[in-house]
Write a structure and sequence with these properties.
The structure holds 2 protein chains of 2 kinds. Chain A is built from 15 helices and 17 strands. Chain A is of the alpha/beta class. Chain A folds into 2 domains: 139 residues, Aspartate Aminotransferase, domain 1, CATH 3.90.1150.10; 255 residues, Aspartate Aminotransferase, domain 2 (3-Layer(aba) Sandwich). In chain A, the strands form 5 sheets. In chain A, strands 4-10-9-8-7-5-6 form a 7-stranded mixed β-sheet, with helices on both faces. The radius of gyration of chain A is 22 Å and the shape is globular. By secondary structure, chain B is α+β, with helices and mostly antiparallel strands. The longest helix of chain B has 16 residues. Chain B is globular. Chain B starts with a helix and ends in a 14-residue tail after the last helix. A 3-stranded antiparallel β-sheet of chain B has the order 1-2-3, with helices on one face. Classes of the chains: A alpha/beta, B alpha+beta.
Chain lengths: 414, 154
């Protein structure tokens, strides 16, 4: 408890709010309450400035020219790679591949690793709480290779069924792909432990960290996974940016995902030699400005008291959970204690979409719908949920406004 | 809040609570399914047609208040109408919910359906209001596809 109180003192949420200009927006005449952070986060001034500075003083193509601007652009772009390496504790910058987002990272592994390693009769194991982006790429590659997709069930509390996980590992899946933090439930999966079990069973392991990186320290070497993916826009960076971390030995052995410029060493019509890691996987002109912005976002997060920020978010989530649960007719999905940043719930007799509209009229942004996790909705027997998701800039006042907004829902619907 | 009251009018809340014609029809002439993937709304529409006239209509499904009330009010509005009359009603309804809010709403001939004028203030909800109608159109055109709302103006 003392530890939490100490942390709260060093993390200054008002100072953080001052870094995010959009939080001053007026929505339907009210100050914005942004609780849709699992969908995408807002961007701090530091990121907006980095984008501006890049376009004002450095814009050029990377790795391709001898002029000064290209040097600046290359330096800024590769600087982000070094930042990412530090941020997730990768062993080498060669293991950091830029993508347009988490989805592309998973597709890259499914296409490149999957098509060259999966055969008829092989198994790929995912979990019931995956985002569609960690289901559909594997369905596609299973269709192409004849491999079978297996699914580890979840419990009513929204946790992975660990006995079932072990049973499914007994049939030696070639690859296990799992979400670190569930975007629809908020469940934190014990990925280091699960990775160790999966690797002991001989599987290659991918962890989808889209909903994790902004909310907790991530150390890919401590997790022990082979691949880790995340999106820049969910960690206060620009949309259209993402990272695929892959162990160098695996990436080296994988065929390119896309062909084009920058990913080659030499091209003739007879034979093409591919570039070294990580460029082999970065065909074409990338989202240079976006990657520069992503670097600024990660350095911004690093500049904060991270354990204080995490304690702040966890305290808000606990408060939101307790207060929303006490409203009559509310059911919270996944009551697991190991939850981060996401509160997913339904209200008796009122469809989530209507709740979204009423909250919006109060200036409160939440997500309503299936959260790209239809199997989770089916598992809980709901067509959709309301999802309030917390970021570093949210406050206790905003949680109170959410609760007041939900009372307003009751008023409208009687 | 005034806009909200425009959207959630008493008639809409009433039809959401107690949707009319909320049942399947045995041996229907036509059925069609509607799905709004954005919010997960789903409905199945059942039609009984006799000589180009809709003699009975029912629906089942799950959805938000706007989509459920719209389906309910639609079934009341089209029962007894010819297919051509129902289609013309859809055109007028569609115009009503997509007319920009700063222009006057044309509610002539729409009867109770005029309560959906408030949807214009909420572009994200236009799809909810029109899902049942798209499904009806598919049913009378005997299209096998699930009606989608993707082409709807946002």
């Amino acid at each position: 408890m003392t530890k939490l109180a100490d942390a709260a003192v060093t993390f200054d949420v008002q100072k953080v709010r001052g870094d995010f200009p959009i939080l001053a927006e007026t929505i339907h005449g009210r100050r914005l309450v942004y609780l849709d952070n699992a969908n995408t986060t807002q961007k701090p001034r530091q990121v907006l400035d980095a984008l501006d500075q890049y376009y004002l003083h450095a814009n050029a193509n990377i790795h391709r020219a001898t002029h000064l601007l290209s040097e600046r652009a290359t330096e800024a772009y590769e600087g982000t790679r070094a930042t990412v390496k530090r941020f997730i504790n990768a062993a080498d910058t060669r293991e950091v591949v830029f993508t347009k987002g988490c989805t592309e990272g998973i597709n890259l592994v499914a296409s490149s690793w999957g098509r060259s390693n999966l055969r008829a009769g092989d198994e790929v194991l995912v979990t019931w709480m995956e985002h569609h982006s960690n289901i559909v790429p594997w369905q596609l590659v299973c269709e192409q290779t004849g491999a079978t997709l297996k699914v580890c069930p979840i419990t009513d509390r929204g946790e992975l069924d660990l006995d079932a996980f072990d049973r499914l590992l007994a049939s030696k899946p070639k690859l296990v792909s799992m979400i670190h933090v569930s975007n629809s439930l908020g469940t934190i999966n014990p990925v280091a432990n699960l990775t160790a079990r999966a690797k002991a069973a001989g599987a290659v392991v991918l962890v989808d960290g889209a909903q994790a990186v902004a909310h907790m320290p991530v150390d890919v070497q401590a997790i022990g996974c082979d691949f880790y993916t995340f999106s820049g826009h969910k960690i206060y960076g620009p949309t259209g940016t993402g990272v695929l971390y892959g162990r160098a030995a695996l990436l080296d052995a994988m065929p390119p995902y896309q062909g084009g410029g920058d990913m080659i060493a030499s091209v003739t019509f007879e034979k093409t030699d591919y570039n070294v890691l990580p460029y082999k996987f970065e065909a074409g002109t990338p989202n240079i400005a976006g990657v520069v912005g992503l670097g600024a976002a990660l350095r911004y997060v690093e500049s904060l008291d991270r354990s204080g920020a995490q304690a702040h978010e966890d305290a808000l989530l606990a408060e939101a959970t307790a207060r929303v649960r006490s409203i009559s007719g509310v059911r919270i999905l996944a009551e697991t204690a190991r939850r981060s940043s996401v509160l997913s719930f339904v209200v008796d007799g009122v469809h989530p979409h209507d709740i979204g509209t009423i909250l919006d009229a109060e200036g409160i942004a939440v997500r309503t719908g299936q959260h790209c996790a239809q199997p989770v909705m089916d598992r809980y027997g709901v067509p959709a949920t309301v999802r309030a998701s917390i970021g570093i800039y949210n406050t206790g006042d905003e949680i109170a406004q959410l609760v007041a907004g939900l009372h307003k829902v009751r008023e409208v619907f009687g | 809040m005034s806009d909200l009251r425009e959207l959630y009018q008493e008639v809409i809340l009433d039809h959401n609570r107690r949707p009319r014609n909320y049942h399947a029809i045995e041996r229907p002439s036509r059925t069609a399914k509607g799905h709004n993937p954005l919010c997960g709304d789903r409905l199945t529409l059942y039609l009984m047609l006799e000589n180009d006239r809709i003699t009975d209509v029912g629906f089942e499904g799950s959805g938000c208040a706007i989509s459920k009330a719209s389906a309910s009010l639609m079934t009341e509005a089209v029962k007894g109408k010819t297919v051509a009359e129902a289609e013309s009603l859809f055109s007028r309804f569609h115009e009503l919910v997509t007319t920009p809010p700063d222009l006057p709403a044309k509610t002539e001939g729409l009867g109770k359906l005029a309560v959906f004028a408030g949807v214009r203030e909420f572009p994200a909800r236009v799809k909810c209001a029109s899902l049942a109608w798209h499904t009806l159109k598919n049913a009378v055109e005997a299209a096998d596809d699930v009606a989608k709302t993707e082409d709807e103006a946002r």
